[in-house]
Amino acid sequence: MDNKTIYALSTLFGKSGIAVIRVSGKVAFSVFDKMTRLPASDVADRKMHHVQIFNSVSHETLDDCLIAGFKAPNSFTGEDTVEINCHGSKAVIRSILEALSALPDFRLAEAGEFSRRAFYNGKMDLTEADGLADLIDAETKIQQKTALRQMGGTLFNLYESWREELVAMQAYLEAFIDFPDEEIPQDTVFKIENTVFKLIEAISKHINDNKIEERLRDGFQVVISGPTNAGKSSLINAIVKRNVAIVSDIAGTTRDVIDAYVDINGFPVIFSDTAGLRDSEDAIERIGVNLAREKIANADFNIFLFDAENTEPEIFSDYTENSENFLLAANKSDKLSADRKKELLDKGCVLISAKNNENIAAITNRLATYFESIYQQSSASLMTRHRYKEALSECLENLRCFNLQKEVELAAEDIRLACRAIGKITGRVEVDEILDKIFSSFCIGK
Predict the structure, then answer these.
(1) pLDDT > 90 fraction of the chain, expressed in percent and rounded
(2) CATH topology of domain 127-210+384-438
(3) Distances in Å between the alpha carbon of 428 and those of 79, 365, 392?
(4) Which of 172, 252, 297, 321 is the most exposed place for a label (fewest CB within 10 A)?
(5) d(CA 337, CA 315)
(6) For domain 5-109, which architecture applies?
(7) Given strand 220-225, what is the order of strands in its sheet?
(8) Burial class (CB in 10 A: 0-12, 13-18, 19+), 350
(9) Domain covering 226-359, topology
(10) How far apart (Å, rounded) are the C-alpha atoms in residues 130 and 134?
């Protein structure tokens, strides 16, 4: 990272009422002196100023806009920062960016560079940076809520508390390395070993409790399966409220897996309509049935649908025997007698009519309740990145190697490596090798 002042469009390029162009760096305030008639010395910190902005070379007026200055270190990046709020036409945006490129020591920002500078200047740690990226990408309220919690420091505080305990242990051990003739007191040995044991327990529980982090980002997998002509395609169309699957009375119409994305009470859900479960002589249909069975085995939640006029829910017993994350949906309830309805309700079925769009909410409500329950179990310290799991697993591996029966230098090295592994998550150690990966996913203006 060089010391040049960077600039970029922080809003989408295109036709809009307002566009925001961000500038950050040592000479960011020269924008006022060179592109407006408001001297930088007269700029009130963190306040909007109404100015005309012009090209410093041609002196051509580019726009009538609002501009604000944020003096270091009280800015997003920790550097002097200027934000230009201009009209959002492509011509205006392009002309201002071209004018900025002509200023000395200015260059276009790279992807994620504003956030990267904020990290280097101590304005955020890497977990907060990840939270910011997740907030930008959030499409549901649960994704938004989780990202905001992470930006607030929830994960940083947890991981940093573990790192501080390791640092304290490392200090003890290195002190004994400096005085090799001194034996480690027994009470100190007990304290260190007890701390390591508790950390192993806490980190292991944290890893094992976090089963949904990728699902919150990519979507929970919900599979709709059942015999042919049970109404699976009608049900998925009713849930997503548009026609994504072909509905036909011809058995075996659905031969592949059809996926549809839905927001269920803030949870991202991917519904899969599968081929009808039956034995078939058709080679293509058999492939679809095998795919359906694979989907059922790997689903986060299964909806087993059947024609309640002609089929019993027991046909799914092989799938439900050792599972809790499923729902039995009895379709065509509009054609059932009162006694038949009672019988199915007593067996735990949800009565629906996919064709008539009746009681579909009972299914989505059940799903929302299920996802909310597993979210609440781990939401306080939700591990939102696979790299966190990798780093914590590395930390655990080193802690499990630790014992004070071997040379104290080797024991101290185990603690140092465990501490460094956690530091990779927050950025409290030298981790240049992972910074490019993290910040390259950001948009240019962030």
Answers:
(1) 43
(2) Four Helix Bundle (Hemerythrin (Met), subunit A) (1.20.120)
(3) 20, 43, 14
(4) 321
(5) 21
(6) 2-Layer Sandwich (3.30)
(7) 258-264, 267-273, 220-225, 301-307, 326-331, 350-351
(8) buried
(9) Rossmann fold (3.40.50)
(10) 6
